[in-house]
Design a protein that fits this description.
Helix content is 17%, strand content 43%. With 206 residues, it is an alpha+beta fold. α2 runs antiparallel to α3. The protein starts with a helix and ends with a strand.
Amino acid sequence: MEKNIGGRWVLLLLMATCSHEQKITAKTFDFEHLINEQVNELSQRGRILDKTGKVSNKKSDTTFVPTKSAWQAELEIFQQLNDINRLVGRSKYKITDPLEDTKSNLKIREYVASKPKGDAWTSETLPSINSMKFYYHDDFSQLKRIEATIAENNMLYSNSRDLIMEFEEEDGTPVLNRYSMFGFQKMMFRDTVRFSILGQIEHSSH
């Protein structure tokens, strides 16, 4: 059940890069490379995954040491963050960098869906990736946290999802130590389904 919750449950998210309130056309952030790098790091370091999944009132917990292919399945959903590269290239986002984080000493690179001038949002014009934030130290390579929000609405269904990845620096490299997803899905003529996934990554005792 955990894999269904974690890897396949709903369509997900995003990515990014650039400068102060600037619209860009180049590829902004290579999520595919980031995920592949994390899969290699986590499997080589033999990290333990404590995972909790909840769908409506059904909860499941598991603790295990994923293989490389298992880490790939766990983090596969984050590959969809690469969509932001295509959407940013179509000038759908306001990009601000840097913002000061009022709760820490980190800087923020923020992407917010930019409303068409003189128009209201429609299902055709509203990007599914509503917003995204990268939290980092003085240099963007010192990545600490990624937050993204996705929402989709049409005549058949609506859903909203928040995705978070958190990193610790090890040997000069950001290594994933926690990830989470929270959201809901509402199908026509069906009850709203709420779900959450939390993955806490621990060091091996060996």
